[in-house]
Amino acid sequence: MSIETILQSPEFEQLLPHEVERKFIPVFPEEFEQFRVAAYPIEQVYLSHGDEPFSLRMREILQPDGSLHYEATLKSRGATGAEGLDRIEFPTVTISQQDYLRYKSHQTPIVRKLRSEPMEGIVIDFFEDGSVQLESENPMNWEEFSKQYGNRFVEVTGDAIGNSEWRAHLSFRRANDGQEALKPRPELNAKDIVADILAQPADRMVTAHIAGRSGSGKSTIVREVYDALIERGIEPVILSTDDYHRGATWLTSYNNAEPWTEWDAPIVYDTAAMALDLAELRASRPIWKRTIDFSDCEPRVDGVIQPTQVVLVEGIYASSQNIAHSGDLHYEMTTPLATCVGRRLLRDMRERPEFAEPAKSLHYMLTQAEPAYRAQERVAK
Predict the structure, then answer these.
(1) 208-232 mean pLDDT
(2) Which CATH number applies to 190-335: 3.90.480.20, 3.40.50.300, 3.40.30.10, 3.20.20.150?
(3) Which residue in 164, 165, 193, 319 has a CA-CA distance of 20 to 30 Å to 271?
(4) Taking a C-beta distance cutoff of 8 angstroms, is the pair 164, 44 a contact?
(5) Phi, psi (5° rounding) for residue 95?
(6) pLDDT tens, 346-378?
């Protein structure tokens, strides 16, 4: 199911947290200089691009006591209506300075501003480039506030100029000779993968590895490749690195009887066992069909897998050097981080709403899952 279909589902819509905001540019920005005195500095790092269905930012805020506070927020693009820009805003999560600096780099768009909050639900932003913008999430307070200034504002709700992410990307391009940051790359094409598989020598097993973040669409493209091969009379085997999950019992024992929490760490997946199984299949010998039962997070054996002409390996560690073999095909999903995170949160809320904790999941994906994904040693392509 596509993101758009999910977001338009009335049953699902009511489960999601929303914000409705309006944005304005003052005709006479000098009238608001009085608010600059009490404004506090904010630096926003964007980990998303305007072509994505989600916006992901991290923020550094200087607090009144002089300390720095760090947080991350994920929002959908939303739609502009009569009441303003209506979009999903997942709960903001607190992160560490280390997490913030992990993502901030010369390749990330950044916007800096001073923020004042003259009334509840009303903010005034003084941007680094000298521009001033107001934002309202409280219609009653905005009506009162705007009357004080003669309603001398130009509404930019839904316009690019009213979007801080757009400002950050514009600033980046100005500083980098027009180069664009975080532009999504073309997605993998199942037809191309099938063509690569069919071009391999017929006298040996072909193994195609498809790796990517959680929520990147690995399962979808693997299914498309599988179906296309079936149409050509080839019945491939699908192996997931999830199938080689060690399970909660093993991991708890490994962690000195303490509950395990780092579910995306390399040790979670027994890629050495997967490498042995792949070697057995190449030698035309059957292997046990492994799986992980996520209801109790324990491994199971569910039958036998017979040798076959094509094996499709998918998972976040599908490109691990531990399971590489000479002649294997390797692919990496190009789906960017913000889209993956948004898909994952929506999937959890759709499929297991009673267990879904968006704030906890967002924090985990940014502070543990993504760092682990980036740190893995992949096969060179």
Answers:
(1) 96
(2) 3.40.50.300
(3) 193
(4) yes
(5) -125, 175
(6) 888 887 776 678 999 999 999 999 999 999 888
